[in-house]
Amino acid sequence: xxxxxxxxxxxxxxxxxxxxxxxxxxxxxxxxxxxxxxxxxxxxxxxxxxxxxxxxxxxxxxxxxxxxxxxxxxxxxxxxxxxxxxxxxxxxxxxxxxxxxxxxxxxxxxxxxxxxxxxxxxxxxxxxxxxxxxxxxxxxxxxxxxxxxxxxxxxxxxxxxxxxxxxxxxxxxxxxxxxxxxxxxxxxxxxxxxxxxxxxxxxxxxxxxxxxxxxxxxxxxxxxxxxxxxxxxxxxxxxxxxxxxxxxxxxxxxxxxxxxxxxxxxxxxxxxxxxxxxxxxxxxxxxxxxxx
Length: 292
What we know:
Number of strands: 17
Order of helices and strands: EEEEEEEEEHHEEEEHEHEEHHE
CATH class of the largest domain: Alpha Beta
CATH architecture of the largest domain: 3-Layer(aba) Sandwich
Structural class: alpha+beta
Radius of gyration: 18 Å
Shape: globular
Largest sheet: 8 strands, mixed
Strand order of the largest sheet: 10-9-1-11-14-16-15-17
Number of domains: 2
Mean pLDDT: 82
Helix content: 10-25%
Strand content: 25-35%
Number of helices: 6
Low-confidence stretches: 1-14, 21-27, 30-37, 40-55
C-alpha cells in the first residue's frame, strides 16, 4: 500500500520509517503435516501479487519433496527457517523463498528469485527500516537480496538494528509503516496509547502511520494472545490518540481475518486513486472510518 500525505503525492522525498520486530504476513505454513504435503494457510488473499493462474491456491499444501530447508536456527529472538520452494511445484509459491520466524509457522517474507513479488514498488522513496533481531537482517542479506539492494540504493535504503519504538530521524518521518510482532502476536506495547502518542510526535506535518494490526489470522505461540482480541485492543489504543482520524481496511474472507489501520482523515477517494498504481486502486473504496 502507498503511504501518502493529505496532498496525495505519489512519492515523498522525505523519510519513511518501516518498523518491525518480527513481521509476518497473514499466511501460515504449518509443519504439522510432515511428511504429508506442507499446509500453507493464507488468511488474506486480497493481495496485489502478480501470480499467474495456478492449479492450486495459497490455501493448498506443498508436497514435501518440493520444499528445501536452506537455513534453520534459533536466534535470541526468533526460530528462523528459510525454505526454498521448487520452481516445479504446482503452487503459487513455486520458485520462492520463504522466511519463517516463529513456532506456529507464520511467514515473515516471500521472495521470488526470478520475478518480482508485486508491481507496486515505490522506488523514489527514502526508507529507514528497523529490526530488533540482527539475525533476521543477516538472513535477509544472505538469502533475500537485501545486501544487493543496500549497495544499489545507499542513499535511499537505511537498515538499523534496534528498538523501532525509539527510532527517529532529523525533522521527523513523512510516513511510518508499523509491523511489530513477537512470537506470532502484536507486541503488547501497541495496546498502549502512550506508544501511539510517541509515534505521532515523530511524524512530520500531515504525516501518516499505517499499521498491520493482524486479526484472527495471526496464530500466536501463547494461545491466550487471541489475534482478534489483540487487534481490537490495538485499535482502541490508537483511537484514544487519533480519534476519528483513524481508518481500517479489512482483508480476507471474514471481517476480522486481517486488517490495516491508517491514521489521518481519508483523502478524496477519486483523487487518491489517480495517484496509485492500478493494482492498488481496488483497495481505496475498502477503507472505512473506525467504528469504536
